Amino acid sequence: MTVSVLYSILLLVSLGSIAAVLLYIISKKFYVYEDPLIPVVEDILPAANCAGCGSPGCKAFAEKLVASEDISDLFCPVGGNDVMKEVAKILGKDVVEKDPTVAVVLCQGGCDVRPKTTEYQGPKSCAISSLVYGGETDCQYGCLGDGDCVNVCQFDAMYMDEKTGLPVIITDKCTSCGICVEACPRDIIEMRPKNKRDLKIFVGCLNEDKGGIAKKACEVACIGCSKCEDICPKDAITMANSLAYIDPVLCTLCRKCVPVCPTESIIETNFPPKKVKPPKKVADAKKVKPPKKVVAPKKVTVVKKVETVNPEKVAVAEPNVDVVKSKTDA
Fold this sequence. Notes:
The structure is a single chain. Strands 1-4 form a two-stranded antiparallel sheet. 24% of the residues are buried. It contains 10 helices and 8 strands. By secondary structure, the chain is of the alpha+beta class. The radius of gyration is 47 Å and the shape is elongated. The protein has 2 domains: 32-98, 3-methyladenine DNA Glycosylase II, Chain A, domain 3; 101-269, Alpha-Beta Plaits.
């Protein structure tokens, strides 16, 4: 009994020793070197694993940062410029500072301006709805309203408005990861520069139909009239497929295109209200001469001088008159 137990113990010890030696040899044979800077860089990254940088996760992005000689084209949208500067300082590489961006919904066709013509009964998913049919309205380009973008957002930066049925983006919470852009089957979400005070001007429509058809489907649709393109002083607006597009890089936020849009499809955010200019005067007050006062004619009193007759002169003159009379009588 004792001998059999000892044999069992020796057998197990020998098998364990052989397995340990084999594992050691295999680990050395297939050893993969990992740069010690990778975990250091990974600790600096925000660990969101949102894939906004183009890598499947923060560790993969850290490996890419360490392995790349030039990281000027790499950027973590969640961490922003501060995180990238810290990474560049550790790696001893140069990084390019980029303007922060924010997600923007390029559709404002709510329930009040885009009437429903059909009713969908099935799973509420934009991905499924886009494959099955064109939507509950006549617009084949607008938001489907099932909230796939809201469901994938990891930062609670989006919610669905019950009145309009459209997604609303909370700018302060948006990290510009871009996951909502990929989740939208109709590509109505775009990343645009945040600018100072979150000032933005963009066309809230993607309808490429002709003006009449687009206007019938949605009251605030772009009808391709080109008025905004004509008035833009910086050539920031282009027309393609009966649809206007505002380039965020060329746009100077002058807002000249907003009031000329007949359907109000151009959206401006966080701008102060425009000051109402007083009506222009016909002529400058300094140049206009004051009207002359009409003076009523004064009454002129004519005073006739009455000459007093000197009686002495009359007395002297009377004889002469008689003489003249006498001569005439003769």
